[in-house]
Amino acid sequence: MNILWLQAAGCGGCTMSLLCAESPGVFDLFEGAGLEFLWHPTLSEATGAEVRALLERVESGAQPLDILCVEGAVLTGPKGTGRYQMLAGTGRSLLDWVRRLAPCAAHVVAVGTCATYGGVSSAGENMTEATGLQFEGHHRGGILGEDFRDPAGLPVVNVAGCPTHPDWVTETLMMLSAGELRAEALDALGRPRFYADTLIHHGCPKNEFYEYKASAEHLSEIGCMMEHLGCIGTQAVGDCNIRGWNGGESCTRAGYPCIACTAPEFEEPGHGFAETPKFAGIPVGLPTDMPKAWFMALASLSKAATPARVARNAVADRVEVPPTLRKPRG
Fold first, then answer.
1. How far is Cα 5 from Cα 169, in angstroms, rounded to an integer?
2. What's the whole-number average pLDDT of the chain?
3. CATH of 198-321, one of 4.10.480.10, 3.30.70.360, 2.60.120.590, 1.20.1420.30
4. Which among 189, 194, 148 is positioned nearest to 170, based on CA atoms?
5. Cross-strand pairs, 130
6. Strand bridging mode 36-39 / 282-283
7. How far apart are CA 134 and CA 157, in angstroms?
8. Per-residue pLDDT for 285 more than 70?
9. If DSSP codes are grouped into helix, strand and coil, which group holds residue 106?
10. What DSSP letter does each residue of 14-52 carry, written as one string?
11. Which class would CATH give 2-196?
12. What residue spans define the domains of the chain?
């Protein structure tokens, strides 16, 4: 299957992340899976007239297109014309090109949270009118409309993340190539469930501290970051702490709170990313599937039962008190 990759408004970070695919690398993996790029703005040698001719062949149907990938939000301004973002040499906006090419593709994939929901590109006053392919934040629609479906009946496949994990992209493309990605394999926001059915909390190395509500008070301390430092890993989807990045790391493993970058409108939480909003001293962002009263009762009991080792280590930048060695029985 072939892939046409378009770069819209964004930092290019999802492509950079894709190049970090390991064991095998992205090119070996695609070759083994029978996937090839028709064109990628960063990875392909073709440019200028050659690319324009390719796009025209795809648009006319002379060149079959299996997968259209769009990275970055699409700018629809000013006033819905898309002319804030023109595709060089064509005299047409990227908005127009995506709308014309999407129906030509067997599948459409939005790569990264900018392409899926607008992301950082749509933050603030959004003067460029940036939006995702089939969502604008939490709202369905985007530039292709809520009703868009590919020939197989799939909506836009939203591989959300800022940036995406390279495996999320490669697995999605390989599943499409194998005909194994069906509508029931996507969640309500269009994300592949193979990673969206998992929480960042799962596999987090700070889970012992979370269980006892032993909290870090400053960045670089090894305690749980939910109570004071803005971590929402108990609500955010992704298998980052199970799959790992770049040899096994993740945000929380590196000591930074999860900011739910796979979710719509994560870019504007209404407070600092490393701050936990509270009401009457109680964190506002609690696990979504647990009643607040139950959580607070459990937290009180957990804090009362916190071992001195856990409490002391939580506010240190390394393990200061190791686990107690128990003598063997008998």
1. 12
2. 93
3. 4.10.480.10
4. 194
5. 75
6. unpaired
7. 9
8. no
9. strand
10. HHHHHTT--SS-HHHHHHHHT-EEEE-TTT----THHHH
11. alpha beta
12. 2-196, 198-321
